């Protein structure tokens, strides 16, 4: 790790420490996400090593505990095998079992409905009621489970969350900050202060799922998960399906997602959560879009015009 970037050798070393009785067969970089990931195959199974080369160790520690919290739930998440959160050198990392299947290349209405059903399972995770606070999950050593929310109320968190996203807009869509902030200011009272809590994934989308034989067999990326109202993830997920879906078919996928989830979102709350989804795109616009940036910016301006009307 001479240049600071974890290598295949570092990944093999991590596996050797996590499962010393297994022999490494192959190692390959996973070209996905913003952190550094490797898939390692041993003579007994497959593993993924995630090095926190993009986020801080506190976020990594919270993600590890979120995976552990969901381990006995109906949500199909990988099992944490080892976590080294304060290494003598190099970034923190953790090791999980590798999931079967692959991210879907295309999303059908049937798969969108399955996405809604799996998302609903996040509301029945044992131990969530014992977590103190709402908002982004933070590592809380000594607590049971060792997690805590970042805010006293969910409404307080949503307000902070949107403002954080809008604080560093991409230049091409910076003019949308004030209209989106205005939507949130006008609808924030619709956000519950202390909803029935659930684990709320921050980035629930097809790229973070594994599918085999048409079934969702894995959910990945619990970075920045929160404790609060699961309908925020539902609305954000629907927004992403609408933005990324086939021409003319995005709304159909969104409707199927809601159908699978089993409930709708009241209009004012939906507008607030949709504004939060738009704020995510404003923050990450340059990462989301490349060759199609001009067209994407025009579309986003149209979305905001409609949202703020």
TrEMBL record:
<dbReference type="InterPro" id="IPR002575">
    <property type="entry name" value="Aminoglycoside_PTrfase"/>
</dbReference>
<dbReference type="InterPro" id="IPR011009">
    <property type="entry name" value="Kinase-like_dom_sf"/>
</dbReference>
<dbReference type="InterPro" id="IPR051678">
    <property type="entry name" value="AGP_Transferase"/>
</dbReference>
<feature type="domain" description="Aminoglycoside phosphotransferase">
    <location>
        <begin position="34"/>
        <end position="269"/>
    </location>
</feature>
<dbReference type="Pfam" id="PF01636">
    <property type="entry name" value="APH"/>
</dbReference>
<protein>
    <recommendedName>
        <fullName>Aminoglycoside phosphotransferase domain-containing protein</fullName>
    </recommendedName>
</protein>
């Amino acid at each position: 790790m001479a240049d600071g970037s974890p290598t295949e050798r570092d990944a093999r070393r991590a596996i050797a420490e996590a499962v010393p009785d297994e022999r490494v067969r192959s190692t390959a970089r996973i070209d996905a996400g913003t952190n550094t990931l490797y898939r390692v195959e041993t003579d007994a199974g497959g593993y993924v090593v995630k090095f926190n080369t993009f986020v801080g160790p506190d976020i990594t520690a919270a993600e590890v505990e979120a995976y552990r919290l969901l381990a006995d739930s109906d949500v199909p998440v990988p099992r944490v095998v080892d976590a080294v959160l304060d290494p003598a050198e190099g970034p923190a990392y953790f090791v999980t079992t590798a999931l079967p299947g692959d991210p879907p290349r295309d999303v059908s209405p049937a798969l969108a409905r399955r996405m809604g059903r799996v998302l609903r399972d996040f509301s029945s995770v044992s131990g969530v009621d014992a977590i103190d606070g709402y908002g982004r999950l933070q590592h809380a050593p000594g607590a049971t489970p060792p997690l805590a929310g970042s805010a006293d109320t969910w409404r307080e968190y949503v307000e902070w969350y949107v403002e954080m996203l809008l604080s560093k807009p991409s230049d091409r869509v910076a003019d949308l900050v004030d209209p989106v902030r205005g939507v949130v200011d006008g609808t924030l009272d619709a956000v519950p202060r202390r909803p029935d809590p659930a684990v709320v994934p921050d980035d629930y989308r097809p790229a973070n799922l594994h599918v085999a034989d048409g079934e969702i067999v894995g959910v990945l990326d619990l970075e920045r998960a929160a404790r609060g109202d699961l309908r925020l993830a539902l609305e954000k997920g629907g927004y992403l399906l609408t933005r990324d879906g086939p021409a003319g078919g995005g709304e159909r996928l969104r409707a199927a997602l809601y159908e699978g989830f089993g409930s709708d979102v009241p209009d004012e709350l939906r507008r607030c959560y949709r504004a939060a989804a738009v704020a995510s795109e404003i923050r990450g616009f340059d990462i989301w879009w490349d060759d199609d940036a001009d067209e994407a910016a025009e579309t986003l301006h149209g979305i905001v015009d409609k949202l703020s009307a």
